């Protein structure tokens, strides 16, 4: 309670779910995404229901000037951020490596990898100065193994795993807590984005799997940040019980 939490990609799915759970826990929120109308609706819901401060601003993590504007617009009373959740991310297509659409691969690298670097560069100096705080990267089981048709997405999430591990070792003495969360299948807009709105293909992904909800992942993030200061949960895998492997 009283924490200040930044969430990227808060306009839907897991990011929105984390915003809701953190609001229930009385954290103030700084929410970014490209779809500001969604953020406005969320702000309206959360600030009245929970009496917290909610600051929203347009954010495209692939655009450095957008990230600069986002950071510069944060009000003075919310500048001492306690928790940063790097959540914005996407998968595009399901293609075998030999038929990959290179524009889709670039876009995934821009959002999932370069976006995290850009956001970290913006917020880390503050964390280092205050010598405390949590950085949570929403990675994926696709960052721990590969699966057919997922070369581009898996490559980006393996990159997130690598940068998270390096960062954790860099700030161990500060100390900051750095956590990578690797979910399996979560029911969000992710599959619709992945298949460009093709509902049939999107639905197919969930066949036979009782997917996690955004709230399941959000509760896990809330658990991680609520541990006593000397406890760092560094890596966490959360899977649907009946999902055998990433798809
Ligand atoms: O997906 P979705 P999830 N700049 O599509 C935002 C990982 N994950 O919640 O900009 C800023 O509902 C987008 O906002 P908008 C996944 O890789 C998922 O499932 O308004 N924000 C939206 O709020 C990702 O890292 C599954 O379009 C940008 C959000 O990202 C994270 O979970 C499994 C942006 C995406 O919400 C959240 O995805 C897994 C940009 N350039 C990992 N581009 C799963 N769902 O199964 C997108 O292992 N966003």
Task: Describe the protein's architecture and organization.
With 247 residues, this protein is α/β, with parallel strands linked by helices. The chain has one domain: NAD(P)-binding Rossmann-like Domain (Rossmann fold). It has eight helices and seven strands. The chain has helices at residues 13-24, 36-50, 64-73, 102-130, 151-170, 190-194, 199-204, 214-225, and strands spanning 4-8, 28-33, 54-58, 83-86, 134-138, 177-183, 235-238. Helix 2 links the parallel strand 2 (28-33) and strand 3 (54-58). Helix 3 (64-73) packs parallel to helix 4. The mean pLDDT is 97. The site of 5-hydroxy-NICOTINAMIDE-ADENINE-DINUCLEOTIDE PHOSPHATE has 30 residues, from helix 1 and helix 6. 5-hydroxy-NICOTINAMIDE-ADENINE-DINUCLEOTIDE PHOSPHATE is lined by residues 8-9, 11-15, 33-35, 59-62, 87-90, 111, 138, 140-142, 183, 185-186, 188-190, 193.
List the helices and strands and how they pair.
Blueprint lengths: L3 E5 L4 H12 L3 E6 L2 H15 L3 E5 L5 H10 L9 E4 L15 H29 L3 E5 L12 H20 L6 E7 L6 H5 L4 H6 L9 H12 L9 E4 L9
Parallel strand pairs: 1-2, 1-4, 2-3, 4-5, 5-6, 6-7
Helix pairs in contact: 1-2, 1-8, 3-4, 4-5
The protein binds 5-hydroxy-NICOTINAMIDE-ADENINE-DINUCLEOTIDE PHOSPHATE.
Radius of gyration, whole Å? 17 Å
Number of domains: 1
Order of helices and strands: EHEHEHEHEHEHHHE
CATH class: Alpha Beta
Quickly give the CATH architecture.
Answer: 3-Layer(aba) Sandwich
